[in-house]
Amino acid sequence: MQSGSELGQGNSGVGVTAPPRRLSGPLTGLVGSAFVSGAFFGFFEFLQRSPVRHEHVAGTAAWWEHLALALATLVILCVAWWRHRGRFGPRSGRRWILAPLGTHAERRVARAFGIGGGAPQLGRLLLALPAAAVFLFCFWRAGVQVTGGLDPNFTVNAWGGPTYLGALVCHYLDLFLLACGAVRLLDRILPD
């Protein structure tokens, strides 16, 4: 008999089964900490902003490049979702994008560190370190963009600039793609 918490409905005991992958507290906390520390860094950058406004330089926004990237990303995500759904069933596609922060990913990291039995796999850890650093940097940089972008000089000649929203969208697209590449490498490196 499953308890109410296993069913995903608190203690009522009524409801659907919980998703196969739950978010990992330590991994979610790690990326959340990276985001928050980036937001603080961006805020301190904002506080030290220059009172002199920079002029916008034509051609620095890179909108056409990001439009092409967005379309390519949309196609790749649709194909990946379709393949995932075909492999694991129609109800499996709900949270596949959050898999890098799931409990399965946490177990793989723990296995590489030798937690829970077995020897640490130092070679894998050394190979995984740059990809993990890029993954965490993406969350840190996303935090910087939220608060640092409040400074008009921060976004005036940025990709997607000169507006805050345009720069945020373009940078988040870039960070999403970098994070996906890092996750793909980590998936190949860490033990299953």
Structural write-up:
This protein has a domain at 102-192. Helix 2 (25-47) crosses helix 5 (122-148), helix 3 crosses helix 7 and helix 5 packs antiparallel against helix 7. By secondary structure, it is an all-alpha fold. The model is unreliable at 1-20 (pLDDT under 50). The chain has seven helices and no strands. The two termini are 29 Å apart.
Keywords:
192 residues; disordered N terminus; single chain; 7 helices; mainly alpha; 0% strand
Task: Spell out the blueprint of helices and strands.
Elements: H1 4-7, H2 25-47, H3 63-88, H4 103-113, H5 122-148, H6 152-155, H7 164-189
Helix pairs in contact: 2-5, 3-7, 5-7
Beginning-to-end CA distance, first to last residue: 29 Å
The helix/strand series, from N terminus to C terminus, equals HHHHHHH
Quaternary structure state of the chains depicted: single chain
Mean pLDDT: 81
Could you estimate the helical fraction of the residues in percent? Answer: 55-70%
Radius of gyration: 20 Å
Low-confidence parts: 1-20
How much of the polypeptide forms β-strand, as a percent range? under 5%
Shape: globular
How many helices? The count is: 7
Number of strands: 0
Largest sheet: none
Structural class: mainly alpha
Condensed summary:
The protein has 192 residues and is mainly alpha-helical.
